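New here. Your pick:
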Amino acid sequence: MHVSIDQFGGLPLAVSLLLMLLLCLYLALYPTLAAYLSARLSSNKQLNLWLLPPLWLFCEYLRSVVLTGFPWLSLGYSQIDSPLNVFAPVIGEVGITALILLINVTLALSAYKLKQHLAQNKVGENQLNPSTSTALLKPIITPLIVLSVLTLTTTLLTNIQWISPSGKTTSIALVQGNIAQAIKWKPEQEWPTMLKYLDLTRANYDADIIVWPESAIPTLEPAAQDYLATVNRSALLNNSAIITGLLNYNFESKKYFNGIVVLGKKNEDDEQGYYYNHSNRYYKHHLLPIGEFVPFEDFLRPIAPLFNLAMSSFSSGDYVQANIMAKGLSILPLNCFEVAFPHQLSANLTAKTDIILTVSNDAWFGKSHGPHQHFEIARMRALEFGRPLVRSTNNGITGTVNHLGEVTAILPQFEEAVLKTTVALVKGATPYSKAPQLILWLLIAFMLISAKAVEKRVK
């Protein structure tokens, strides 16, 4: 965030750092609230740490919805490559976050209670015998049970396959234009940029589906009709489909939208493909604050260039939208930041969804950790919902992920390149994909009840 504000926001370094401090203070409110509620709801004189995991989970939910939500870097994403990732198809990333806290609380309480017991009974290293060893186990019985159940469950889930291959595949070409953010919206760069994407595509028409990144075409849809007609005809003639990020202005509603549009083949017998305002498109719902819309804009826009960035006046698309169709495949699109919202993905997932698609322009974040974090979040979505995921970006990270959250193909960052690969399609559904909201609240309720039961037993 500092990179985007400092390099593209036009603010002095001191102001940028102040904004980062304010953001950190805001995000710190949620773990603070979880800790406060844990202490507040503990009914005995000693803090009941078992309350922390479910209350942290509740506060993470609040973080994902308050002020449109900022669910970035929840703890569970750190386990995408660990044994705990087998829980993602069942309880999602938020559930893994709760498990991480549960494990840490278990270890902390074990160490504390053991130390406390040794001190109270004045047991030294040379005083251990069978009777004292048995007594030492009493303070850690509950933690041992928790860890044993978790280990057993992890082992069992490792051997369960929720999703199976359908035997079908599709060829994908992901175009990474590597357009510098500093020149992306300059009028004189409009045609060079559009011609670059067309040139990179020409050699890859043998792919079933070609994907361009978010806002790959740096002009509004009404102004690009001649260009779009040419690209559409080329895709139709080559029996291919092109999916691109495209900005639109609706003359009837007088609103701007950040969209994803399909050109060329909707299905095998499609002979028309794209036409202006056709329905085979998606409009971004979760807009990025400041970058795509400015809250209290009448007050904030005059203050600094940061609040008046190019393309920062978008309107939200509907929360629930139909999957887009390309070469007969049903594709669930997510635009940039939206991949961090599993509940929105769930709302648009159908039994016919073949692929999850996310397009982005992470050039805003330079060479920071941001694009890598973004890619890991996308990998978690593929694992949670049991679908292959395709990610096309302007300058990285562009790649494909299978239904197990494993990276199957990837391009290096900051290079102009095309990634051509084959995506294996699957069938089936994960438990989490069927009811993520219900699973979240059941987890919170179950862990709260269990925590209070443990507290009552200890009294």
In short: Residues 279 and 396 are 29 Å apart (CA to CA).
